[in-house]
Amino acid sequence: MTAHPQCPLCTDDGGELVWRGKSARVVLADEPQFPGFTRVIWAAHRAEMTDLVPAERAGLMALVWCVEQVQRDLLCPDKINLASLGNVVPHLHWHVIPRWRDDSHFPAPVWAGAERDGAARLTKSSPLLAVYRDALAARLDALVAG
Amino acid sequence: MTAHPQCPLCTDDGGELVWRGKSARVVLADEPQFPGFTRVIWAAHRAEMTDLVPAERAGLMALVWCVEQVQRDLLCPDKINLASLGNVVPHLHWHVIPRWRDDSHFPAPVWAGAERDGAARLTKSSPLLAVYRDALAARLDALVAG
After folding, report:
1. Residue A104 maps to which CATH number?
2. Rounded to an integer, what distance in angstroms lies between the CA atom of residue B80 and that of residue B106?
3. What are the residues of chain A with a beta carbon less than 8 Å away from any beta carbon of chain B?
4. Which of B49, B69, B80 sits opposite A65 (nearest CB)?
């Protein structure tokens, strides 16, 4: 695997590590306005999904769907937002973001301007976030174990 | 398939139709600042990727990867942006957006504020966009024909 010394996702976990597999890792993003905001980060430095071979793509998306399902099961958001952008850091990473109708930006994307003050429903120390984190790690382990 | 009379993606194509398959369609978005902005829209009214069974998910993502590849091959963007949000219209649709370093918003997401005037490289009447549209329809046909 070729690491790029200037790429922050090659040199750092990019968030609070929840799970690490052979080809990707899952982290909790440091986004206090958006509790549960999770990123699935490809291990190797690749920019686009079509830089991966089909089996790699399917494996990465299986992790994304797993995160989405655990968010739905435990956090009960009003909507899930998925995105792979990478304009600033062109190293494949998926944003998996639980959204609530009363969050600061809803229905706008989290990258738009805020719509309201919208105090986040959960904080970093909420017990439910710890439950989510542990359940997510267990479900990802189970997924990879097949 | 259950159509929702209040859902704009159940009642309208949602853009200039490029291709229609049994379970999804592909349209050019009406976003003059972002030429080539393409949407892949699931035919049935479903909100989340995990509302689909795995084979449906894989089929939908195969269309997304096909759009991404044709954009890379013909439009040569600096980056591809992928997103499934649906906060306003909770009917599964993927945004596949070719981005250029000098576009109006780069490196911000298209949903953030503009960074500069950034005249779009292509306009609705650019010959390259017509080539992209026709090539995309042909590649999607070939993909589905297997």
Report:
1. 3.30.428.10
2. 11
3. 47-50, 57-58, 61, 64-65, 68-69, 72, 79-88, 90, 99, 106-109, 111-113
4. B49
**What are A129-139's pLDDT values in tens digits?**
999 999 999 99
Is it the case that residue B99 has pLDDT exceeding 90?
yes
Name the minimum distance, in Å, from the CA of A111 to any CA of chain B: 5
For residue range A26-76, what is the model confidence (pLDDT) as tens digits?
A: 999 999 899 999 999 999 999 999 999 999 999 999 999 999 999 999 999
B83 contacts A83? CB cut-off 8 A? yes
B52, B95, B111: best mutation site toward chain A, by most A Cβ within 10 Å? B111
DSSP for residue B102: T
Q: For residue A49, what is the DSSP state?
A: G
For residue B124, pLDDT over 90 is answered with no
DSSP string, A104-126: SSTTS-TTS--SS----SS-TT-
Query: In which domain, by residue range, is B30 found?
Result: 8-145
> With an 8 Å Cβ cutoff, are A87 and B106 in contact?
yes
Domain membership of residue B107 (yes or no) is: yes
Smallest Cα distance from B106 to chain A, Å: 7
Total number of domains constituting chain B: 1
> Which one has a higher pLDDT value, A122 or B63?
B63
Q: pTM of the predicted model, to two decimals?
A: 0.97
Q: Which of A46, A69, A49, A48 is nearest to A57 (CA)?
A: A49
Within-domain flag for B61: yes
Is residue B1 in a domain? no
For testing contact with chain B, the best of A111, A115, A139, A143 (most B CBs within 10 A): A111
Which residues are bridge partners to B11 per DSSP?
Answer: none
